[in-house]
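=== Discrete structure encoding ===
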Amino acid sequence: ECYNMLVATALTFQKIKGIEELDLTQYLINGVYIQPVISAIKFNEHIQRLFLANNPIGDEGCYWLGTMLRNNKHVCEIDISNCKITNRCLRMINEGLKNPMMVNSYYLKKINLASNELNENGGTEIARFLGNFGYLQWLNLCKNKLKNAGFRMLMEKYEELINVGRTNLDTLIIFNNDIREEDSLEVLGRVVENSRCTLKCLVLSENDLSSSNLPNGYLSYFFNSLKRNTSLVEILMLNCNIRNDNVDDICNMLTENKKLEKLCLYNNMIDNPTKFLKILSVFCGPNPRNNTLKELDLSKNKCKLSINDEFLKIIKNLQIDSLDISQNFELTNTADAE
């Protein structure tokens, strides 16, 4: 019954014109059953967005997806999140393309690979995918298990693509991939300080980036690399275990980086009031050290700030459009709460 419904859907989309979005989320499509739909839209000139989330499409389904992308110049967005995509599945998409010499000829701009099963051996296939799709701008890899080895492999291959001008990626989401500090941040630092880097948004949230026994470790290297970055406008590092030891590096980065517009450090470990206020002081005065950052989130850093003269002076002189420092106050009485 499911197969017949998919065939009917495929035939419908062969004939109907003007429909730009095909949503097959949660149809429980498994493997070969995706073939009629893929065949129907292979030469379709109208569908631009294909949503297949929550379908266990498997190796065979990924191969057919690759063949469709080889022939279709109109599909620019695909969602295959939570589809049990493994390293082998991604390899099958690459194999389905069949023509690795046609670099930059594939028109996909956005792909969601979140909540799949890509692991520490998947970095090479992800980078190969990036190389095949030179127009790709948005890549979501959150909630996979790349870990340090997979992330480092991806960044090394991505760095090679940057150097030869074979990628235009501007948004990379690596949320919750069990990446710890080690040398993963070293290669990421090299990427962001590369003058050819095109990244505008980087999401590293939910990775323990300060797991090293070193006082500052490679996280310090990463913040120092950001001083020389000229492309990133948004960085999200929620719940990354960023600590007081990293504050000086953050302040130096904010002082020298003139491109960044949004920085989110929500739910980290900057719990020393003096260190916390030091970050805010970067944006104080008639000539602040940073006047380009528009949005800063330091909420829920477990800091027990007091509403005293020093705090009020800094707040009065802040030169920033949006600031969130909620859940950082030590309220001692009703007057403070008000």
About this structure: Residues 333-338 have pLDDT under 50 and may be disordered. The chain has twelve helices and eleven strands. The longest strand covers residues 21-23.
